[in-house]
Amino acid sequence: MEMFYYLVFGAMSVVVAILEFSKNNKDRINTSSAFNAFKNNYLVVYSLMMAGDWLQGPYVYFLYSQYGFSKGDIGRLFIAGFGSSMLFGTVVGSLADKTGRKRACITYCITYILSCITKHSPQYKVLMVGRILGGIATSLLFSAFESWLVAEHNKRGYEQQWLSLTFSKAIFLGNGLIAIVAGLFANMLADNLGFGPVAPFDAAACFLAIGMTIILSTWSENFGDPSESKDLLTQFRGAAVAIASDEKIALLGAIQSLFEGSMYTFVFLWTPALSPNDEDIPHGFIFATFMLASMLGSSIASRLMAKQHLKVEGYMQIVFAISACTFLLPVVTGFLVPPSGEKGGSISFAGCIQLFGFCTFESCVGIFWPSIMKMRSQYIPEEARSTIMNFFRIPLNIFVCIVLYNVNAFPITVMFGMCSIFLLMASVLQRRLMVVAELHNKSKPEDWTSLKERDTEAEPLNI
Fold this sequence. Notes:
By secondary structure, this protein is mainly alpha-helical. It has 17 helices and no strands. The chain crosses the membrane at residues 6-22, 43-62, 74-96, 129-150, 170-189, 201-219, 285-306, 318-336, 348-369, 390-406.
């Protein structure tokens, strides 16, 4: 492996270590021992859940190819997963609000374990069922756990600022450290120990089972809308009304869809971008470097959110703008750096530049996750939190399915340029969200009585 990759990984590791060990009292949030126990319990569970998810990532495509399926067949399996998340996500989110978030988290574990079991079968229909189950599980992972955390945090009366600490630590561990360890562990099981590409899925099922045991024994139940009279259709309508009637929620959903859509598109584009002529690049090591960059971002986010005078809505405008610039690098290098016609070899100079840019984008991803969680906790009503969060994922999944279906129809520079435009739009919408939120906060003390009377007459959701 070239020294270049070690230098990038080593330099980033040093920066992360310096940020973590140089925190002073101004960068830390003083909390209680009861909250720390609650936070650590959640972080253990969340890390196990993310380990179950990350272990599967490196070998999904390879496993399907080992079973003899073509790229088109594999693409349809991936589309089935995103389509399942889109179709069933809102339903399971509403059920989580109505029947309990703890039950939804347990359902996630069971559903994903069943999805892992299907990987032992080379039958296409069985694998398709597994992808559908995986799509349902993904919807629960990115809604039920966060909804449970926010509701339980508020129910126990902890300070609102402490929630940002849990968010940043969850991303630092679950989307950073755990992702790196899971990738290396999966590689050891499948290749070094010779257990084959199914072994990481079996390991994932074990981690999910351990996490489910902890949830069953230590978590209490909480609900969104406790009313037994509201059916799913009424919940859908209530969530849609909340999004349509509150500009802040609508803006937040648009921002999330634009950023995450670009992020998931990047997952499919970074490999051909760095190796357009089949250059020999260490995919696993680069993936670990990206996850380390995400850890760097989450470490930065924890410092930013610890400053009470600094608003999330403010600095996220800059984060989205930087993300847009990083996705312009493949377009710029495509014009400025002459392409090489030679096949194979090591990473090109243009590839080195793009790798730095992609690491910067992953750092922005690390900032994005805890920050968007913080904003969702502020703006999304508790009564339909999981339902609304999965509503946000509908345009995201539609976008990703379209990209997957047409990934070979457009040049890679066009795809990156399109994502860059989306990220610039997210920055503009983030600016609008900050303005609307400030206007709302200024008018709230004056008009509280009239707003309360109007809300009582109309009987909408408490937003």
